[in-house]
Automatic annotation (TrEMBL):
Keywords: Amino-acid biosynthesis, Arginine biosynthesis, ATP-binding, Kinase, Nucleotide-binding, Transferase
Gene Ontology MF terms: kinase activity
Protein name: Acetylglutamate kinase (N-acetyl-L-glutamate 5-phosphotransferase) (NAG kinase) (NAGK)
Bilayer-crossing regions: none
CDD domains attached to this UniProt entry: AAK_NAGK-C (cd04250)
Residues in Aspartate/glutamate/uridylate kinase domain copies: 113-347
Length: 373
């Protein structure tokens, strides 16, 4: 199996750049992969057994997991005293049955571009499991693009250097000192950690930021109180398409640069939606801390599993979609209006939620799908 590293370059990435990627030998082998989901998605987990490595499993066993501290906007990546509860392993016959049942969905999505926004609780509750699920999509013939934030990890490193995280209207206040930490954590530790985990699963990934090749064009937001926070004004889709054509999974850290070369902290939801629009992705997935759109926020059984554009807009008008869910649904609607076929809001805390949402139908669905009219 191979992982890849790319030498830095000032020129915009091209197909020739990706061919210059240097291979690095990764651990070989396989081991069982945990499974827990409805039949169709569960079967997909059987296929992921080929991605696992005994050496990787031992390495994962030594690594302290991270957990979230409950709060408003602030979560921390922190050490925990024990491993996350292991999920039961499915019998071989049940895995085989599920794979067979998943064939129509696999055939429909094969070769599809899927943009996934990864962040929040998904990054602090069994993060390697989610990353390996993305690797599974690539191994099954899809073309995933992973766009990540890193709020919990940023908060932990800000605490280490004595900087208190501050938020205004749910947005991080990013002064010059905070921006330095954000850039180092997102473009360094978080981004390369994701790439390394995918490589250990046998899937080649390339780590990028919005700065690389001018991938994300951005300008500073008008609200001076937020500091070095940027809004996306353009996306170099060709940078990502070149990587996908070479069989690599792009992993994008949402740090951009303005015209003067200053780093800007870009909201990961908005950046992912902009990338999905630029690529005219087939599917766009937002991993969040909620099950999806609930008709009654106090009743988890009131999940709305599917709605079209008009229906989603009416949910906002009627106040069913409110608070922090409004910008997420708005992100999905903006992506759909620019050509994305379907968008999904899923609970990143749920084991293998990404696979369940993309490959399950009917009663098996656990998130909310917003489709074109």
């Amino acid at each position: 199996m191979l992982t890849f590293t790319v030498a830095a370059t000032e020129a915009a990435p091209s197909a020739s750049l990706w061919r210059a990627v240097k291979p690095v030998r990764a651990a070989e082998g396989h081991s069982q992969f945990d499974g827990h989901s409805p039949p169709v998605a569960a079967a997909l987990l059987a296929g992921t057994a080929l991605l696992a490595s005994p050496r990787t499993a031992r390495r994962r066993g030594r690594r302290a997991p991270v957990s979230a501290t409950k709060g408003d906007e602030i979560k921390f990546a922190s050490k925990s005293s024990g491993e996350a509860a292991a999920l039961p392993t499915l019998p071989l016959q049940q895995r085989a049955q599920g794979i067979a049942e998943a064939l129509p969905a696999l055939a429909r999505l094969s070769g599809s571009i899927v943009v996934i926004k990864y962040g929040g609780a998904a990054m602090v509750e069994s993060p390697e499991r989610t990353i390996r699920d993305v690797a599974t999509l690539a191994a099954m013939g899809l073309k995933p693009v992973l766009v990540h934030g890193g709020g919990p990890e940023i908060n932990s490193w800000l605490a280490k250097v004595g900087i208190e995280p501050k938020f205004v209207r749910g947005l991080r206040v990013t002064d010059a000192e905070t921006m330095e930490v954000v850039a180092m954590v997102l473009m360094g530790k978080v981004n390369k950690g994701i790439v390394a985990t995918m490589g250990a699963a046998g899937v080649a990934a390339v780590g990028l930021s919005g700065v690389d090749g001018g991938l994300l064009e951005a300008k500073k937001v008008d609200d001076e109180e937020l500091g070095f926070v940027g809004e996306v004004t353009g996306v170099r889709g060709d940078v990502l398409l070149s990587a996908l054509e070479e069989g690599l999974v792009p992993v994008v850290a949402t740090v951009a640069a303005d015209a003067e070369g200053n780093f800007l902290n870009v909201n990961a939801d908005l950046a992912a939606a902009a990338i999905a629009r630029a690529l005219e992705a087939d599917e766009f997935v937002l991993m969040t801390d909620v099950p999806g759109i609930l008709r009654d926020v106090k009743d988890p059984d009131s999940l709305i599993s599917e709605v079209d554009e008009t229906g989603a807009e009416k949910l906002i008008e009627d106040g069913v979609v409110a608070g922090g869910m409004i910008p997420k649904v708005t992100c999905c609607l903006s992506a759909i209006k620019d050509g994305v076929q379907a968008t999904h809001i899923i609970d990143g805390r749920r084991p293998h939620a990404l696979l369940e949402e993309l490959f399950s139908t009917g009663a098996g669905k656990q998130g909310t799908t917003i489709r074109q009219n």
